[in-house]
Amino acid sequence: MKILTYKSIISSSLGLLVLLSTTQNLSLQAKHGGCISIEEQQFKLKKLTSENAIINDASKKIKTSLQKSGHPSSVRCTYALSGENTISQTTKVYYDEYHKHPDFIKESYLHDAIPADKVVEIFYKKHENSMSISIKNPNHKHEKANCKEVKAPKSLLA
Q1: Mind giving me the DSSP string for 119-150?
Q2: What CA–CA distance (Å, rounded) separates 154 from 158?
Q3: pTM summary value
Q4: Are strands 103-108 and 85-95 parallel, antiparallel or unpaired?
Q5: How far is CA 36 from CA 25, 85, 96, in A?
Q6: What is the DSSP pairing of strand 144-150 with strand 103-108?
Q7: What is the Cα 50 distance to its own chain's centre?
Q8: Are 36 and 29 spatial neighbours (Cβ–Cβ below 8 Å)?
Q9: H or E element, residue 38
Q10: Is 84 helix (H, G, I), strand (E, B) or coil?
Q11: Which of 123, 121, 65, 69 is nearest to 97 (CA)?
Q12: Which residue pairs, CB below 8 angstroms and at least 24 apart, start in 26-34?
């Protein structure tokens, strides 16, 4: 009888220790949610070396965004770049209905504390079949260093 009681006490205390350690790890992860480990950064690292690579990546995002319900009219993809590495990418989908708020999606590939060298913005208008690319200074949001119209890929026109 005593052996059975000691076994149950030991097994329940071990279970309690495991439960406490997992909840402590979860609370630490929730507290430091903005921190990304180096291994995760290397796994999620996205390299966009040329303008064509940025346009191709943006056209994939635009194509999936245009397939949403609710009549999307235009899509803005913004890339924050540090050298050839992408720090973050945001997608904003605008709709034809005036009362519908735009959808905003942000993907971070590196920690936000890393400063961006340049910000590349691609804006696609569905009704005009036009695409523009602009390169901005990250320190001044509205200052455009370079802006030009680009031919929309055939995958978007179909």
Answers
A1: EEEEEEETTTTEEEEEEE-TTSTT-EEEEEEE
A2: 6
A3: 0.66
A4: antiparallel
A5: 15, 16, 37
A6: unpaired
A7: 19
A8: no
A9: helix 38-44
A10: coil
A11: 69
A12: 34/111, 34/112
Which residue is it, tokens 């052996």? 3
Q: Give 88: exposed, middle or buried? Use CB within 10 Å, 0-12, 13-18, 19+.
A: buried
Tell me the C-alpha distance between 132 and 151, whole Å: 8
The angle subtended at Cα 81 by Cα 79 and Cα 87, nearest 5°, is 80
pLDDT at 157 over 70: no
> Alpha carbon of 150 to those of 18, 67, 157: distances in Å?
57, 22, 13
pLDDT for 31-80, tens place per residue? Answer: 444 555 555 554 456 777 788 888 888 888 888 888 888 888 899 999 98
Who contacts 93 (Cβ-Cβ below 8 Å, separation ≥6)?
Answer: 65, 68, 72, 74, 75, 102, 103, 105
Per-residue CA distances from 96 to 60, 66, 74, 118, 148 (Å): 21, 12, 9, 30, 25
Q: What are the two backbone dihedrals, phi and then psi, of residue 92, each rounded to the nearest 5 degrees?
A: -125, 120
User: What's CA 67's distance to the chain center, in Å?
Assistant: 19
Residue 21: predicted pLDDT: 58
Q: Are residues 134 and 147 in contact, defined by beta-carbon separation less than 8 angstroms?
A: yes
